Amino acid sequence: MQQIDVEQIMSEIREEIKEKGICEEPIPFRDPYEEELPFSIPQQFSKEELYNETINAMALYDTAIQPITQASGIKGLIKRILNKMAFYSMNTHMISQNTFNIAVVNALLEVNALADENRKLAQKVEELQDEIEMLKKKM
User: Fold this and answer.
1) Rounded CA gap, 68 and 87, in Å?
2) How confident is the model at residue 27 (pLDDT cuts 50, 70, 90)?
3) Number of domains observed in the structure of the chain
C-alpha cells in the first residue's frame, strides 16, 4: 500500500493557489438586510392607512388576463392565438392567485373590523375610567 503524504499535497496546493493569485480573504457578499425596502414599515397603527390599503387590495385582487383589443389581419390573428395560449397555460396559476388575493382581502377586512372593535373598546374603557374617577370623588 502506498503512503500518502498529506503535508506535501497541502503545500503543493498552497503553492498552486499562490501562483494563481487567489487571495485568502473571503469573497464579499452584500447584505440583503442593508438595502432600503421598496416600502416603508409602519411604526404605529393607522386606521386610515389600513382602510386605504384594504380598498386598494379589493380593487386589484383579480389577476385575470385582459382580452386583447380586436385587431384585423394577420396581426390580430396572431394576437388572438397568443392570448388563448397564454390563457390556457396561465389559468390555473391565475385561479390560485385570485384565491390567495381574496383571502388576503378578507383578512384585511377582518383586521379592519378588529381595529373598529378595538377603538370602541378603548372608548368604553375611557368612559368607565372617567365614571370610576367620578364615583371616587363622590365618596
Assistant:
1) 11
2) low
3) 1
